[in-house]
């Protein structure tokens, strides 16, 4: 019997609060006993009723229970739930009043009218409390389903974006390889071998929705080595990943579109090439990832070309899917030439 004691304690505190309300009603009917004595009686009846129902539901097989939104044991379905409620109310009525008499040295209620009132109050209060907990459980279950559906939708969108992004990178690489075959066949063969190794590692990797930042940097290193075969000494790069940030989880292929843009718009247009620096840093509760180049630069206010626009849009959509408005992508022109693309989003402490 798997019991969540935190949930049990929270339920009982709610029962205690409900008993104080019931005591107001009973004090109006039997004012001679005083309000706090009525609280004691209400707690006696309420505690016994709650004990029978709360722990009794854990004896019902979970396949006959509603799904609990908090992952605990749900409420019994159909007649099992009604029977358990009736049993709890009966035990509370038959044992709670005598317990109150024993604790407060009062004679038991003997008139038929008082017996009927006491029974009615117990049934009504027990029914209301049971309905309250049952309704809360159903609401929590519905909320859990909604959140699960939203999470599944976000995961599906992330996977769709990733499947769109990987062919985009491959097509760009194949186009570069085709041009290199004509100009420098030996280097084209070397580049093809690099591409083969890169794809083997990428496809063999898990299709998880996130991976450590260290894996993202390793992937970038493989991709930059692949591009270095074609560009030679024109492409220089630095990967700066502090050790404390290696295990931070990020979506796969988050930075690669930015590196592709840096090569296409920054390094390739210049005869002398340039350097790409990929850096991770923590700014308080946020992680910032910079992809900077010393190339030709790009106007952040201008409309990007088709290829660049696709990559940047992919990054923006993936950030929005995971982090909402908290995920930010900025493009900044550097004063000494080049461009810096920065991604920022919140991370756990």
From TrEMBL:
Residues 139-166 form a coiled coil. Gene3D superfamilies: Histidine kinase-like ATPase, C-terminal domain. The keyword DNA repair does not apply. The chain crosses the membrane at residues 12-30, 36-57, 78-96, 116-135. Keywords: Coiled coil, Kinase, Membrane, Transferase, Transmembrane, Transmembrane helix. It holds the Pfam family His_kinase. Residues 254-349 form the Histidine kinase domain. One of its GO terms (molecular function) is phosphorelay sensor kinase activity. GO terms for cellular component: membrane. It comes from the Bacteria. SMART domains: HATPase_c. PANTHER family: SENSOR HISTIDINE KINASE YPDA, SIGNAL TRANSDUCTION HISTIDINE KINASE INTERNAL REGION DOMAIN-CONTAINING PROTEIN. This is Sensor histidine kinase. It comes from Variovorax guangxiensis.
